[in-house]
Amino acid sequence: MLNFELYNPTNLIFGKGQMEKLSSLVPAGSKILLAYGGGSIFKNGIYDQVMTNLKGFEIVEFGGIEPNPHYETLMKAVEIIRAEKIDFILAVGGGSVIDGVKFISAAVHFEGNPMDILQKRLLIKENALPFGTVLTLPATGSEMNSGSVVTIKATEEKLAFGGSAMFPKFSICDPTVIVSLPKRQIQNGVVDAYTHVLEQYLTYPHNALLQDRFAEGILQTLVEVGPEVVENPADYTLASNFMWCCTMALNGLIQKGVPSDWATHMIGHELTALYGIDHARTLAIIGPNLYRVMFETKKGKLAQYGKRIFNLEGTEDEIAEKAIEATVAFFHKMGMQTKLSDYTEGYENTASFIVNRFDDRGWKGLGENQLVTLEKVKDIVEMSY
Amino acid sequence: MLNFELYNPTNLIFGKGQMEKLSSLVPAGSKILLAYGGGSIFKNGIYDQVMTNLKGFEIVEFGGIEPNPHYETLMKAVEIIRAEKIDFILAVGGGSVIDGVKFISAAVHFEGNPMDILQKRLLIKENALPFGTVLTLPATGSEMNSGSVVTIKATEEKLAFGGSAMFPKFSICDPTVIVSLPKRQIQNGVVDAYTHVLEQYLTYPHNALLQDRFAEGILQTLVEVGPEVVENPADYTLASNFMWCCTMALNGLIQKGVPSDWATHMIGHELTALYGIDHARTLAIIGPNLYRVMFETKKGKLAQYGKRIFNLEGTEDEIAEKAIEATVAFFHKMGMQTKLSDYTEGYENTASFIVNRFDDRGWKGLGENQLVTLEKVKDIVEMSY
């Protein structure tokens, strides 16, 4: 087991009807920026619930945070906060709104060019504007972690940053919100959370026995509830376990003491930046091919995964191979298409484009042991066409 | 899944050699009460490590916190803190020292009679003196939770209390400390953690699928590493997984959204108060008999446990029965004796004594559904003779 530090001060408030606690969670007397996305909160009643529970607070609204939130959009919120002397942000939305609010929170008091937070991947440990969240779309775990991904539209870069000041003060997670989600977003949420676990689990066999069990517990639960929750989002057992899996997949816990990969995400982010493909769907395209290309280094863990999650039998190599196919089959069951050509035309130069971009950034090797070299990235992306 | 709030701000620092972070964790300029137990930290080198890493801090020592820490002892520390104007406490020890320090922390600024904290089970949400811990004995999870159990010697009562101000600011958990522990204490640690999980898991079938998987993950890991770690405490894989299981068994996570029992602990505490039997061993005495007496309400979950942890087969009733026997066998493998008569003579009136004491406290029924009535408590204790 690797050495680790576990610190997660987010107050997570989970369950039906928890919105009524909102007014006691926001610091008394705060002037609030209410940040949201494309306006679904007006249709599903969440906007009204929030406003009812924030009576008496002064509120400035900031809507229109897009999926894969844009630096350019978020900087407008930063200006408003500075001008209006706002002292608390409430993010009402999914991972994109929450990630966007993390950037806003970091940028408000940042001295220098806030673009450096992204391009230099700065660690934000202090001077952040406090914020809370109301989660409307389970997927990214952003409601209980200190990471964020923001896209710079001008340069078509999708970049990650974070730091201990980026934990939400609180997050309200009510599983009943998923009833109003489009099927596509529920499918995305399941595959996103599933891949988050795989990034932290499908590396090489190591001695963090308990962490493996926890990771497998999330995978097993997602396999059990994922396909069903898409069809029956009003079923509270399905909805609550789905939502809880998403949070636990990326709130930092299963990552403690273990190696992690994240190469699927690094490559997938480029597909979103280039073609606007949903984040989760890029993971379903890239992940299985990454496991194929990195088979020799990953087969030990692939076999453990195949045995424990899919009850596969055979030699280590056989189980490992079947485990990749079982993963693809699960993604298909979750409504994912798993080839780049299913989503876009004109993809022929994607591999070399991504390799060049990684090269420009000085990236030599990705993954748990930096063994996903740029050559391997090329193979993985070409295999994904 | 039941509604829940998850809030745990303890900064947990886990691994080999983490003690060197100590000086950066204690607030600069603090005057520290260094609290410890019977003096084992002088033999195993931890005292020296702590002092080396706290050079420059003003330190007042308070040793002699006993197992099942006494109110009477802890109040002496409270007097010292008040007289010496100490502003931080460092607990160096196992669950008893940490639990004791939680009480000290709560009592220093408490207005009124501090005994009320225990006897009225007050929730401590503020005005606590900040404290950190260096864990020397994995077992109770106290290093990452906000609960504590303290014994009032004068009345022979062992009483629990807690509250959100009772989380340690930090806990340093270095698995190599277990090398110097007596076998008996490692055995106790494994059984204590295992029973902590059972208290939160062996209730009735419910819909918190992921929480069950996490609980089972801890149980499986303890079954795998428990017997071995007693023999090979220097094996880092065994030591680190054992220690991490103990923390995760009772840091609040697996309890969120599920019913919990705790009747085994309530009864077990009385055996410790009466006969001084090690806490974990009281759990090994009482637990299996509680499952036998409460078989009808617990058999659904017992069967799930039997299938998933011990790969048992048969009808639900058969698996449930065998699961109890497998638990007893595991406790025996962990060096536990599982009858009261193995530990003491003159036990014949224990059941009625405990029942009378519970009755005096107004306790009518314990357990997840308050179905462990005083009659059932009597049966359980008598079955344990």
Automatic annotation (TrEMBL), chains A, B:
GO terms for molecular function: alcohol dehydrogenase (NADP+) activity; butanol dehydrogenase (NAD+) activity; metal ion binding; methylglyoxal reductase (NADPH) (acetol producing) activity. The keyword Oxidoreductase applies. GO terms for cellular component: cytosol. Keywords: Oxidoreductase. Residues 9-175 form the Alcohol dehydrogenase iron-type/glycerol dehydrogenase GldA domain. InterPro entries: ADH_Fe/GldA, ADH_Fe_C, ADH_Fe_CS, BDH-like. Residues 189-362 form the Fe-containing alcohol dehydrogenase-like C-terminal domain. The keyword Oxidoreductase applies. Belongs to the iron-containing alcohol dehydrogenase family. This is Iron-containing alcohol dehydrogenase.
